[in-house]
């Protein structure tokens, strides 16, 4: 997990205090809490060098008895370079960030990961999604009603549309 998360966390620790959740984010003894980090990000005259140093001291604690962690370990043992394993680890980390009160740096990537995992869970391939989009865009013109070509109705509408608004 530390290899996948790289510079996002300082340490990945096995926790003895987690019971129902698979993992959580804690800060080091002198690191900023989630609330302090939000306050410092909102400051107009913030020191960016301090931001990088203090905000980076996060620890990921994992629950070795949780079924998600056990299944993830089995997947890692099968294939460490699997893209879904990397997505799952990153998704666990980002979800733990949110649950611990931190903000995400790139929320759109988090949403894309969730959508990818939902597609994977439902058995939807990326090719199927692209084919659905192409067929939907190709059939859109055939579903439109024909244009009204009544002579005097269309002439009065076009004459009225071409006339400019008069200002007093």
Describe it for me?
The chain contains eight helices and three strands; from the N terminus they run αββααβααααα. The protein is mostly helical. The chain has one domain: Up-down Bundle (Four Helix Bundle (Hemerythrin (Met), subunit A)). It has a three-stranded mixed sheet with strand order 1-3-2, with helices on one face. Helix 5 packs across helix 6 (107-122). The chain is flat and about 70 Å long.
Protein topology:
Blueprint lengths: L1 H4 L5 E4 L8 E5 L6 H9 L5 H8 L2 E5 L4 H12 L4 H17 L7 H16 L3 H13 L12 H12 L6
Parallel strand pairs: 1-3
Antiparallel strand pairs: 2-3
Helix pairs in contact: 5-6
Short overview:
This protein has 168 residues and is mainly α.
Count up the helices: 8
Total count of domains? 1
Can you summarize the main beta sheet?
3 strands, mixed
Mean of pLDDT = 78
Class of secondary structure makeup: mainly alpha
Order of helices and strands: HEEHHEHHHHH
Percent of residues in helices comes to: 40-55%
Report how far apart the termini are.
Answer: 72 Å
Q: Strand fraction band?
A: 5-15%
Lateral strand order in the biggest sheet = 1-3-2
Under CATH, the homologous superfamily reads Heat shock protein 90, C-terminal domain
* Shape designation: flat
Tally of extended strands?
3
Gross CATH architecture: Up-down Bundle
Identify low-pLDDT runs: none
User: What is the CATH topology assignment?
Assistant: Four Helix Bundle (Hemerythrin (Met), subunit A)
């Amino acid at each position: 997990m530390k290899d996948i998360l790289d510079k996002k966390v300082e340490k990945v620790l096995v926790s003895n205090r987690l019971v129902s959740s698979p993992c959580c984010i804690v800060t080091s003894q002198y690191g900023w809490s989630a609330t302090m980090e939000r306050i410092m990000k909102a400051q107009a005259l913030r020191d960016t060098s301090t931001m990088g140093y203090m905000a980076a001291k996060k620890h990921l604690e994992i629950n070795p008895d949780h079924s998600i962690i056990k299944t993830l370990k089995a997947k890692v043992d099968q294939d460490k370079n699997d893209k879904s394993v990397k997505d799952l680890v990153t998704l666990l980390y980002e979800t733990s960030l949110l649950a611990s009160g931190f903000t995400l740096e790139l929320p759109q990537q988090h949403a894309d990961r969730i959508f990818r995992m939902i597609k994977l869970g439902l058995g939807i391939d990326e090719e199927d999604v692209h084919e659905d989009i192409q067929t939907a865009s190709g059939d859109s013109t055939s579903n439109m009603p024909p244009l009204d070509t009544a002579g005097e109705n269309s002439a009065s509408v076009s004459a009225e549309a071409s006339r400019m608004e008069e200002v007093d």
